[in-house]
Design a protein that fits this description.
This protein is α/β, with parallel strands linked by helices and 223 residues long. A five-stranded mixed beta sheet has the order 3-2-1-4-5. Helix 6 crosses helix 8.
């Protein structure tokens, strides 16, 4: 493998982390008490030239866990009917089992050490996912327990906007407000935004870092 290929590998780009884009729709703001209603996930890949791209998309409607709170204000906002039988909802445990299995395979395939959540206002999604993993007694959670990539923060730095719809617009990504607040749509647009931010940094010459390439070359010469 050439020096350029090594620098462009996904595991080198993010310090061995495997970035996975996640979005959750919930029935409130309390991750320990309020129900998760939807989970969507987009995995990412990096081509041989170092461009980040979407890979696979997954989506689950979730059954509110037993004893969970469901805030009417949250349902009015996201327009979800948790008890509609047409949702074909599954339990948190079933959804997380499938998600964690896919993520673990991705970690191994990309030679990464651990997955990291990419989300817009990532602390919210991270807290709900960690609470669900604890609630369902998953001992092998592939996601980092506290580190995230927050596209709201990254967009504020790069684009001067922190709202997802506005950041997408500035980045040249179409955004349909009528589809917003669907986990599947928001995850897809967040993945598009994250890829654009990472690839824009590369187009500007920020990756691969010149010093890293020199160090790799020097190491190979010394060997």
């Amino acid at each position: 493998m050439s020096v350029t290929q090594e620098m462009n590998a996904l595991h080198d780009r993010f310090r061995s982390f495997y970035p996975v884009v996640i979005d959750l729709e919930t029935a409130g703001f309390n991750p320990k008490k309020d129900a998760i209603l939807e989970i969507a996930m987009v995995t990412l890949s990096m081509d041989e030239k170092g461009w980040l791209k979407k890979e696979k998309t997954f989506h689950f409607n979730i059954q509110p866990f037993i004893g969970s709170n469901i805030q009417s204000e949250a349902l009015a906002f996201n327009k979800i009917d948790p008890f509609n039988p047409l949702r074909a909802a599954v339990t948190e445990k079933i959804a997380l089992k499938k998600i964690f299995k896919v993520v673990q395979k991705g970690i191994e395939a990309k030679n990464c050490s651990r997955a990291i959540i990419v989300a817009h206002n990532a602390n919210f999604d991270h807290n709900f996912l960690m609470a669900a993993a604890k609630r369902t007694n998953f001992e092998t959670n592939p996601f980092h327990p506290f580190v995230t990539f927050d596209t709201a923060a990254l967009s504020g730095l790069v684009l001067g906007q922190t709202v997802l719809a506005k950041a997408c617009k500035i980045a040249g990504i179409n955004f349909d407000n009528n589809q917003a607040h669907s986990a599947l749509y928001d995850t897809t647009q967040t993945a598009n935004l994250f890829c654009e931010l990472v690839n824009r940094w590369k187009r500007l010459g920020g990756w691969p870092p010149i010093t890293s390439e020199i160090n790799v070359l020097n190491t190979k010469i010394e060997k």
